[in-house]
Amino acid sequence: MNDCWEPEVSVDLAHRADALWRALTYLSVAQLHLRSNVLAANCLDVSDVKERPAGHWGTVPGTAWALAHAGLAAGCRIGVQIVPVLGAGHAGVVQRALAWLTRDIAKIDARYGRDADGLAALAAAFPDGDALGSEVHPELPAGAYMGGWLGGAFAFAQGMALDSPNRVVLPIIGDGECETPSTAASWLAHRVLANTRVLPVVHLNGHRMGGPSLLGAMNDEQVSAYARGLGWEPVVVEVGAGPGLAEHAEFHRVLVAGVEASARGAHRVVFLRCVKGWSGPIGAHKTPLTDLAGDPGQLQTLNGQVRPMWPV
């Protein structure tokens, strides 16, 4: 049994996962909305917020959740390399947050050191203040898939897995993305790519860009039957709007078990069922807080959102 399964360690992992998830979510919100007071040392006021916030909020909490656990799982002694790949280009704000924490983004732009000044520069530059842009970038962690169209990440992950037998690739894809022809075909591709070690994590938040997703309308039994019909072994993990350590521990257990099963040649898929935009404004695709300077209610909402996120 590896270290990640020891009961006394799993509690510590759950605490670390929760802190990392909250940090990634907070850093994403800071990039979307703030121009000063980026550590929220005091209550945010009009002078701290961007006049015209822009970017995508809905995918942030679930993407941050999956990346936090993938990063921690990569540190477990399970004898295989774990490579996450982001399918949604608009998850770039989370990718930038992760790259700031890991210091990878500072290697590209020295302005973004891991201190208050570096974070202030990172927030000021989003969404269009540097060469990296606001979408997923190939030079940052989890950005090996360059994107350019929706639905290609799963197929790209399968090709990446062919390149190395000692690697499990984790494409993090959305339920709306699963409706694209490229992703639909990728589910069946494993029948001719039997040696590809890929563990898809489907961000099942119930929405695509234009409205409710088809997978989101299915219950767990139906989603599982769909996956099995395509030849994949499904595990569904539901995360509530106010997740606790037990939910972190359960998802981590499922993810590590999935990596180990994939390394043995199994075809497993993890469905992360959650609400779009949970921990903040629910259901929004882009940020709904676009008039922070003119609408006191929006500023109050932002203050209520950032305080619980920052992992003190």
UniProtKB/TrEMBL annotation:
The lineage of its organism: Bacteria, Bacillati, Actinomycetota, Actinomycetes, Micromonosporales. PANTHER family: PHOSPHOKETOLASE-RELATED. It comes from the Bacteria. Residues 15-260 form the Xylulose 5-phosphate/Fructose 6-phosphate phosphoketolase N-terminal domain. InterPro entries: THDP-binding, Xul5P/Fru6P_PKetolase, Xul5P/Fru6P_PKetolase_N, Xul5P/Fru6P_PKetolase_ThDP_BS. This is Xylulose 5-phosphate/Fructose 6-phosphate phosphoketolase N-terminal domain-containing protein. Gene3D superfamilies: 3.40.50.970. PROSITE patterns: PHOSPHOKETOLASE_2 (PS60003).
